[in-house]
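Dear Dr. H.,

I hope your travels went smoothly. While you were away I took the liberty of generating a structure for the chain from your last submission, since the lab meeting agenda had it listed for discussion. I wanted you to have the full record in hand beforehand rather than looking at slides cold. The sequence, exactly as received, is reproduced here:
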Amino acid sequence: MKRIKRGILFLSLFLFANTVKGCGNSEDESQDFSGINQVGLSRSKRQASLSDRENCGPGDSRPKIRVDSSRRVETLRREMRRRDVDAFLVPSGDSHQSEYIAPADKRIKWVSGFSGSSGFAVVTLNEAALWTDGRYFLQAEDQLDCDWLFMRGQEGGDSGWIKWLSRVLPSGSKVGADPTLVGAFTWLEWEKALEKHDLRLTSLLRNPIDDAWDDEGGRPQRPTEPLEIRDIKHSGKTWEEKIEELRFKLEEMEKDAMIVTGLDEVAWLFNMRGSDIPYSPVFRGYAIVDKFNVILYISPEKQTEEVYRVSKMSFKVLR
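The corresponding predicted structure, in token form, is as follows:
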């Protein structure tokens, strides 16, 4: 009986919610209901500001995990001025677009203090803002210092930070980004979207955060442990068999070559495992496979005699 009553209650609430949603006679009224979230209706109607931040008022106690990133942000801005850009984009991934990354690639954590696995930071010469998803709302609020705009409850995705930049930057401003940290298609989309607001996406092959981080010191070293070669009883197929299957697929698709960038794909294709990312059996590397050649780009310390002996392939040094 209790289950039946609970089911009737849930059904009543559902019908009531849909009835209320349909009561608005104007587009504005329906948007009022869709804009309600955990930070309140009033915030959804206005832009995020520093006054929205929690535990940032006079006399408020600061969370124990809050990080004072002001000096690092100013160091980044100095590097931005040297490169003549007005804003800098900081995605949370690495040069392989991995979600879970090595400590040396955690650029958002270094510049902002936020350590979640998913986020997007934008730093201008005057402001700094961070976007993340609902998993990290509480964490980001506690970790970001009070000079950061936390865009919780604001429009997400690329459109969120692009619209924000269009409001805070003057026309003709240059928006810097490291092209190795995003896919080619994403880069072209950003470029096109920013152009609509008279903003120019600028490629910075030398990441200003990396320079600032190196100058400060303390950047984690990349692991140097050797690669593990997987036996056929574990891999199921030799790497040569996998290459031949890949070439067959390329021929079907009328393509001449493939560049392999995903770390899990590289590890699977060559039957190798590593420990470059905590809790993930992968290693930093890229591969190029065409009709006649197989080239694996890995760091020098990974190019051991055992790897040469088992793989019998061409290697290039990854820097």
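Two observations you may find useful: Confidence is low (pLDDT under 50) at residues 1-45. The first helix runs from residue 2 to 21.

With kind regards,
E. W.
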